[in-house]
Amino acid sequence: MIRIRVFVVLIAVSLLAPLALAQDEKPARSLSTQKVSAVSAVPAIRTFRVKPSNRPVAIMAPNARVPAPPSPIDPSTMKKILLGIGGSGEIPSAGSYQAAPDPVLDHIVLTAKNPWYNERGYLRLTLPYGFHPESSIEFNKNFPNILDVKLNVENGGLYLVDFSVKAIGAGTYNVETESGNQAFEDSKGSMEHVLIALSAGASGWTSLQMKREGTGYQLYSVEVTKAN
């Protein structure tokens, strides 16, 4: 009995196997046909050769030691600065624009932790050397780094832009706007605030780019205050 049972099972398996193979062949041919038709529908794609930097951005831990940030400009000095560029001298409170029905750029502070404010302004970074989420963004002189500040300004608006920075050694900050550029010589590496004013001749997005020649630097914040 044991031999008969085994023989029957073997016959059953051998009879079913060709059926299984025959069934498997149909989808295989179907898949092959679909693949050919899909490939023939793909358009020609141009390939660009790139040479990216092998150095990743160093994102430091929150508890990493970094230089202390510069002291903020005191209110009395800030009032004089705002008056000096033709403003009213009034200093808007930080984030006051958020309460308006249609937000306007009155006062924002862009940092490593908060590099973007909805529809008001943001930082765009090219090859920063280091990035500390609770402190500064480091730019190294050996890399073609760029700090690009995008601001959504209003026609007739007057804005003071304050770059809070620190550097070691002599160098020169260069700030470029749509209508020109300005150089700020820092012969001893002691400059902590690079100030520039913008007068908006139209509403929309404008751009400021800052670089430093000579040595690298730490950027702590970009504070933008509407002066009128």
Determine the strand fraction and express it as a percent band.
25-35%
CATH topology of the largest domain: Jelly Rolls
Biggest sheet overview: 7 strands, mixed
Looking at the overall shape, the CATH architecture of the largest domain is Sandwich
Shape: globular
- Element string (H = helix, E = strand): HEHEEEEEEEEEEEE
Mean pLDDT: 74
Provide the CATH top-level class of the largest domain. Mainly Beta
Structure description:
Helix content is 21%, strand content 34%. It is globular and about 65 Å long. The strands form two sheets. Strands 1, 2, 5, 6, 8, 11 and 13 form a seven-stranded mixed β-sheet that branches. Strands 3-4-7-12-9-10 form a six-stranded antiparallel β-sheet, with no helix packed on it. It starts with a helix and ends with a strand. Residues 1-26, 28-33 and 94-103 have low confidence and may be disordered. It has 228 residues and is an alpha+beta fold. It folds into two domains: 1-35; 61-226, Jelly Rolls, CATH 2.60.120. The chain is built from two helices and 13 strands, in the order αβαββββββββββββ.
Keywords summarizing the entry:
alpha+beta, Jelly Rolls, 2 domains, 7-stranded mixed beta sheet, globular
Detail the topology: elements first, then pairings.
Layout lengths: L1 H39 L17 E2 L15 H10 L22 E4 L5 E2 L3 E6 L3 E2 L5 E3 L6 E8 L4 E10 L3 E7 L2 E7 L6 E7 L4 E10 L3 E10 L2
Parallel strand pairs: 1-5
Antiparallel strand pairs: 2-13, 3-4, 4-7, 5-6, 6-13, 7-12, 8-11, 8-13, 9-10, 9-12
Short description:
This protein is of the alpha+beta class.
